[in-house]
TrEMBL record, chains A, B:
Keywords attached to this entry: DNA-binding
Residue span(s) of domain HTH tetR-type: 23-83
Location of the DNA-binding region in this protein: 46-65
Record keyword DNA-binding present: yes
Pfam families assigned: TetR_N (PF00440)
Residue runs in coiled coils: none
Protein name from the UniProt record: TetR/AcrR family transcriptional regulator
UniProt keyword annotation of NADP present: no
GO molecular function: DNA-binding transcription factor activity; transcription cis-regulatory region binding
Source species, domain of life: Bacteria
Region (Disordered): 1-21
UniProt-listed InterPro entries: Homeodomain-like_sf, HTH-type_TetR-like_transc_reg, HTH_TetR
Length: 206, 206
């Protein structure tokens, strides 16, 4: 509120840069939060650690995100949105070659975002404070990913079994992400993705 | 060593009960370790917590398992072996109805064992002390599960793509386990498993 008042009194021309700075700070915090979560896990990721990593004061971090839970759920959501946008940009003309789409969907689950999200899920499963926000976030991101998968695969969900086929594919992608957690599973994953791309092509075009 | 010596000096008839007690203590510790891991996560699962949960002194726990890492990797392995045995017992005549086998395989990943293993994997991804043991354990359990899946599905791995088909199915099972972490995903999972059971039946009998 007091920040607003001060802004009001400043000349209008100065408003935009200040908002830009605030947005940039927020973005730095969100990206640092995901990086910390992926690297140090939930126990090692405090607001102070993230603020330091982002080069932002602890006070500024708390201005943007009142609680640790707020910061980390916002961070995973922010990066998930960015990944969705990147995926859509890969296929600007909508439905595309299914084998390529399967590969791109699986890629969503093998990077630092998945690693960060996994730490958040596992922490939420034991922490009552975190669980409601993360459960809601997971449902939202899951729906969005499903929607995108259906669209890019050109899958007709009015046909029996198609919805479950796409869901199972996304479950497989999540499982492949998990298999990549401790070791680089890229070579095996490549073969599994090629085979299931073929199978999916057959099931969806029948 | 000194325990051995004392045993040697005792009358032979007393030896068996003592070994039985030791085996029972070990078993209690292993089961308590998995329960603690599933319920409290890695950070909340110390050797002391497990020993108390098992009704065993901390000294006795350390006699069986010198380090915390030893205790928890042994625990996840022990329970994984028990689950494998239970799965084989479900299909005593070997290859069985594939839809039923798919369902039973997915069930391996939705109980407290999977939850415990997940905590262990995620902790190992950030802890250098834990990583080598858990990586080796995961590879061993993964090979055993794959072997069992191939056998029970009556899958002919000499045919191109069959190995990768079975691997993808197990990845999907893992992903379904993950989806069950925060909420009861049973209704959705049931439909996905039914559909993918059909798909697998088609692919493996072609």
């Amino acid at each position: 509120m007091s920040t607003e008042d001060r802004t009001e009194r400043a000349p209008r021309v100065l408003k935009a840069p200040k908002q830009d700075r605030s947005r940039a700070t927020r973005k730095r915090l969100l990206e640092a939060a995901v990086a910390c979560l992926a690297e140090h896990g939930w126990a090692g990721s405090t607001v102070s650690v993230v603020a330091e990593h982002a080069g932002v004061s602890r006070g500024a971090a708390q201005h943007h995100f009142p609680t640790r839970e707020d910061l980390f759920t916002a961070a995973v959501e922010y990066v998930a949105e960015q990944r969705s946008t990147a995926l859509r940009d890969l296929f600007p003309d909508g439905p595309a070659d299914r084998r390529a789409v399967v590969r791109a969907l699986v890629d969503l689950y093998t990077g630092p975002l998945f690693r960060a999200a996994l730490h958040l899920w596992v922490a939420a499963s034991n922490e009552d404070q975190l669980r409601p926000q993360v459960t809601e976030l997971e449902a939202r991101v899951g729906r969005e990913t499903h929607h995108m998968a259906v669209e890019l695969l050109g899958a007709d969900e009015s046909r029996p079994g198609v919805r479950e086929t796409v869901q199972g594919l996304l479950d497989m992608a999540r499982g492949l992400g998990l298999a990549n957690l401790l070791t680089d599973d890229g070579t095996r994953r490549e073969r599994v993705v090629a085979q299931w791309g073929e199978i999916l092509e057959g099931v969806l075009t029948d």
